[in-house]
Amino acid sequence: MMANAIINVTNLRLRTFIGFNPEEREKKQDVVINLEIHYPADQACETDAVDKALNYKTITKEVISLVEEGHFLLLEKLVAEILAICHQHQSVHYAKVRVDKPHALRFADSVSLTLDWQKS
Question: Which residues are in the Dihydroneopterin aldolase/epimerase domain (predicted)?
Answer without folding.
Answer: 7-117
